[in-house]
Specification:
With 258 residues, the chain is mostly helical. The protein has two domains: 136 residues; 121 residues, no CATH class. 83% of the residues lie in helices and 0% in strands. The protein has eleven helices and no strands.
Length: 258
Amino acid sequence: MLSKKRIQEFVSERFAKIRQNHTAFSFFCKQDDLHQLRVEIKKLRVVARMLDYCLEYKEASAAFLPVKKIFKKAGIIRSIYIELNILSKYPSQASRLINQKMHIMDTAINHFLQDEPAHIRQINEAEKNISGLIEDLDEDDVIAYLGKLIEKTWKRLSRPEEKEMLHEARSLMKTLLYTNNLLNRRIRDIMDLDIKYLTELQELIGKWHDADIAFEELRTHGALPKKVLKALEDEVHLLGKQVTTFSRDFNERLHALA
């Protein structure tokens, strides 16, 4: 059994950190605080989805919606920040695009800060609603849920030629990693996942994803010489091949410790 007490402690810790990171970003506007805010909301989403699966209802996902709105707004800022990090490697060639992106990000940050009172209400609402739905979860249901996540991940990894499939696979891997932190020792031992392999694979897909976004962005705006664009395109292809190779035996390697 995965106890109600353990789940509630996990949820309470997430909300405490959400408030902490939200406050820190409101004061200092540091990207790391915004990133950690999104990570904690993702961990909450893990709980909501597992509750819905194991208890056979969709109320937890509905209760999660208020903080999902904050997550999306923060995501706009983070996406632009990541693009700017990549564009900063080409300051002279992409200066106009960089200035455009910085203006868009400043506007998004201002909107986010202006919505702080609404965010606080949404966080409080989500905590009250999610906490009211938490129950003891049957061990077999939790294991079945994890099995479904692994199956979905493998199906997406088996179609690496489709960019969206790789992106979804990475999201599912993060869900597995966050869920693993919530599990008790008995369920972890039964699943016996190779967390190191899972972490390295999702990080590799992340590198591929960032490089692909940079290439498409720079190609669309014609910000770089063809020679530089070709080098970027080659990097994307190389990372894609590495992902395919590293994920080829996903099911076997995921349980390599068993």
